[in-house]
Amino acid sequence: GLGTNGTFRERLVTSAILVGIGVVGRLRGLRGLERLEELSVTAKLAVIAALLSGLALYDVDGALARLIELPTGPRLGPWEQMRVLGGMLLVVQGFETSRYLGADYSAETRIATMRRAQWIAGSVYVVFVFLALPLIPDLPSKIDETAIIDLSGHVATVLPSMLIFAAVMSQFSAAVADTIGAGGLVPDVSRGRVTQ
Length: 196
Description:
By secondary structure, this protein is an all-alpha fold. The protein is built from 5 helices and no strands. The N and C termini lie far apart (42 Å).
């Protein structure tokens, strides 16, 4: 490129995105930020639907060709089972943004949105794990956070790029959600001394 290292460019892009979120929040308020998050979530859900559809087709093709053999492994003890369940819990937590929007939404609406988000995320997680089981033998011996991206390449060549896009949208959505949540948290923590 221009003789700069990747870290500088990454920080520059990150800063530009955060400034952009701030500008939208300032000019368009909560509704503008909500619109950004809607677009981001829609993109993520489209990629998730593509991934789950691809996995389902892969599984059906493999089952019809009798190529799928579900992996067998050691029985998990109580401690290992608790760790797996704890990992599932981490996947379905983090939907507290609605909590801090009491000035704009009723308690019933905020509770309903948090519950719905948790149910959707939990369902996607369970369906994904079920559909990904036939790919377990293809996992490398050393698993890292990019294993799912590599694994998705066995299903369709376009899926790794789509998952990277979804990861970027997820981080963008988290930044917007944190901005929205902070906008409601500051007045709450300051007991009304600082307003939105």
